[in-house]
Structures
1.
Amino acid sequence: MAQRTIRIRGARTHNLKNLDLDIPRGRLVVFVGVSGSGKSSLVFDTIAAEAGHQLNETFPPFARNRLPKWTRPETDEIEGLSPVVVIDQRRIGGNARSTVGTITDAWTYLRLLFSRLSSPHVGESNHFSFNDPAGMCPACSGLGEVVVSAVDRFLDLDRSLAEGAILLPGFGNGGYWYSRYADIGSFSPDTPLRDWTEAERQALLYGGEHAARLGTRPPADYEGIVPRFERIYLRTSDDLSDRKRETIARFTRSETCPECRGDRLNEASRTATVLGRTIGELARLEITELHGLLDGVTDPAVAPVVTALRNRLRAMITIGLGYLHLGRATTTLSGGESQRIKTVKHLGSSLVEMLYVFDEPTVGLHPHDIDSMTALLRELRDKGNTVLVVEHDPAVMAIADQIVEIGPGAGTGGGELVFQGTFAELGAAGTATATALGGRPPARTRPRQASGTITVANAARNNLRNLTVDIPCEVLTVLTGVAGSGKSSLAAELVAQHGAIVIDQKPVSTNRRSTPVTYTGIAAAVRRLFAEHSGLPAGRFSANSDGACPDCRGLGVRYTDLAFLDGQETVCETCQGRRFTEEVLRHRVAGLSIADIDDLTVADALDRLPAERIRQALRHLERVGLGYLRLGQPLTTLSGGECQRLKIARELRDTAEPTRYVLDEPTTGLHPRDIATLLDVLDQLVDRHHTVLVIEHNVDVIRHADWLIDLGPGPGRHGGRILYEGPVAGITDTVTAAALHGEPA
Ligand code: ADP
Ligand code: ADP
Ligand code: ZN
Ligand code: ZN
């Protein structure tokens, strides 16, 4: 009989403190705790990592090299795992061939339908695949787009050839190609291009007939700069260097393929019809509409295919994605949309006894849409799977079979099991989560006074219905509406029209050496502090100086290059990872050596380091609730929410001029307790006369707004209108109003 629990003993990943835990299998378990308490360290970096690692071990080495790499967690023991599927908010890859249809397999069924029923009859289903040579449009190879020269960017008409009028690399005066254009005697090298005749400019660009028409002047073999650019950059099969790629990005643009007009298929396949519609037309219909249309397919021979297709479509509608269309490229989906699409994909799977691990599945969902997500989580469990969810939303906690809280605090103050039991039992547990659920941050009773407005005019991006909206200045505006109603599109228009700064959750750095120390720029001040206390020159306390350990050159680790295996990183034996020579390490400030500084949390450093300049830089981090970060923690390990708060900290410190800020769902990854901190930070921005626009679903944030703009009523083409603009207290009759008043919509 299969083991009924996942048994974890002595977990020590990141901040976990020798954690022991038994998790029931076949249940829905929700992990809660303040931000930075160790939920992800436990669920993703311990449980999922070990499950992934064990699964990989079952494959032969050559296959293992192609599988995702898992870092084995630090634990004494983990038992009772099964194959794991991680469903996080990472966007679905950068592959232009992936669409909502292909990723959910709905396209496979639609292709089958066309291969059986379409007229004129074309035969096999791969003829309707744009990823198969039998089906793809020959002009764009099934991408639906072609790359063409952006000729308008090639020339600077105000300059002469000698002054570098041809902006392409190598064509400027003295460049590799220059003499072939300037010195052939056909074009005047010193006349600005604007003063040439149109015929001359065409000849310069295209050569060939254009050049011939100018008379005898250009040599017969003269090649225009456009054909030459396309030959060298676009029609080459060579591997492209980074520089060539940059040039291509600058001097080309993507256009809808002129042959298939974006349908991606060859002529026979894109003209065949079912129910009088082509497959391309069906791919552009909203999923809701496509689902309804399939009622019209009554041929019993295809009944199983139609049922399978409708099931897929229904799952997408249930999860609030009925406004998408199958042809939508997955690269354009938001993080939340990507996560929901991945969930649909797995619901279709008939595997059982799997381990599913979710990272905040309610991100991007309006309170109105959350019920459909919780229904999907239950459905996965009821198929016989174990479902583990990291989540802050009480609606998800409420449907859990069991709740596990990690805490009590963040970072070194967390990493322990503080509660395990039902949602009802949590209420009396007195933990940070129980407390936060009991008392919500106060709603704003009196809105702050705006200082003028800025107008976003005629916004028509994506689904927006030519909106003109006033955004009040120097207050907090919250933009609400169901997923897909057009919030991000409107925010993007604000940015495009008025140049607002977007404070998003993208990584602040991809460099493993970036840390809070480098980010806040306190490194020099720290070295100076040690210099003052020791009498040594400040440079000795730099890891790039002769104060550094000679064997690892200040890295603390050494790399072993193992030819065809992955390189190995081991702690330097000479300095034990402490990076400096014994002599340097002997000098202390407030009892700390230079190597100890990296282990301090921001809050510790504020308590212990006696230098006002350092404390000033760090205070902003504490202000945004990041007091628990270690000074030496690589910024590549921060979550999206942490990155966002770090960026706010930088803005608080650096920006004096009144500025416009846009934040998209800043409560992502935040525990209810931390939402109060976030609201406080947003208020600090407003206090400094900044204008803040926040896209949010979180009710506490909405209640804190000075001004509310509610979009809707539905997603996609059912949305894009303004339902309400005004103070929060005045909103009625929308799903947002219902959520605010805690009523079912
Ligand atoms: P939560 O998911 O509860 O927000 P995490 O598990 O992400 O918390 O983080 C717990 C602690 O471990 C935090 O102090 C965080 O900064 C730290 N941490 C997270 N990832 C890493 C890592 N890769 N290396 C070192 N520390 C990390
Ligand atoms: P919200 O932010 O309210 O969730 P969005 O502004 O992201 O809504 O989307 C509004 C509509 O525009 C939706 O129908 C969405 O599918 C569509 N949309 C968003 N981005 C793109 C894009 N890059 N290409 C095509 N359609 C898009
Ligand atoms: Zn094409
Ligand atoms: Zn060393």
2.
Amino acid sequence: MGTDFGSASEPGGSGRRATRSLGPAAGDVRLVLLGPPGVGKGTQGRMLADEKGIPVLSTGDILRAAVREGTPLGRRTQRFMRAGELVPDGLIDEMMSARLRQEDVRGGFILDGYPRTRGQAEALSGVLAGLDEPLTAALLLEVSDDEVVRRLSGRRSCPACGRVYHVEHQPPRNDQQCDADGHALIHRDDDRPETVHNRLEVYRRDTAPVAGYYRERGLLVTVDAGAPPDEVRERTWAALAREPAFRR
Ligand code: AP5
């Protein structure tokens, strides 16, 4: 599939170069974000990445860009995404194995939306072992299903840069326009209530067990995400503080 794996046009900051923060251990931040759809992985991932000066690799953003651009990867994955089903492991693992070998993630990274199955978690461990860059931690964000539905029904996203807003909790400064680049905001196809229900089912069946995979390896950190974004960020920093790489 060549370079069909995230590029300069990849939203969510994945195409930007890592600028190392001043923290001496910044390069050690290799973090996986886990949690149900809409819990706030993208929101928290961006905050953490901005503080640490490292890229966020969002599989959802990479796949949506591929669909939008009509690439071979996008054509193969579109129907799974629209239905709220997982894209097959083989495609995702190949995509992320290539992405994780790129130069801009050598200073650390945050993974948003990967791994999502135990098989993907094993594949990721293999890639990182080969690079001699093991994970620092896996952060599990938790909220109730009702709160997931509230967050997703009010979410608006920028189709160009991937930035997310919420009509009540995080509204854009200009109605329906991205603060960063002025693009018209969209309500994602898979945020319709019937698809959200299926995404929650898929999460419980396939993705929740990934937390167990990291718990067994002593890497899991759990945070109650049922609070405003800034409060969740503070809870997250407090929970991660035992890792030297996360000291501010
Ligand atoms: P993906 O894009 O990864 O979707 P997701 O995991 O369902 O996560 P979301 O992006 O929906 O939510 P989020 O947790 O990032 O929440 P956000 O910060 O936006 O994946 C989409 C699809 O791609 C999948 O269904 C699958 O088909 C495919 N795919 C992707 N990765 C795959 C993989 N590894 N394997 C196979 N298939 C894969 O926040 C949500 C809303 O809440 C926003 O409006 C935000 O403003 C608001 N908000 C955030 N935090 C708070 C807060 N603390 N309080 C109040 N509101 C908040």
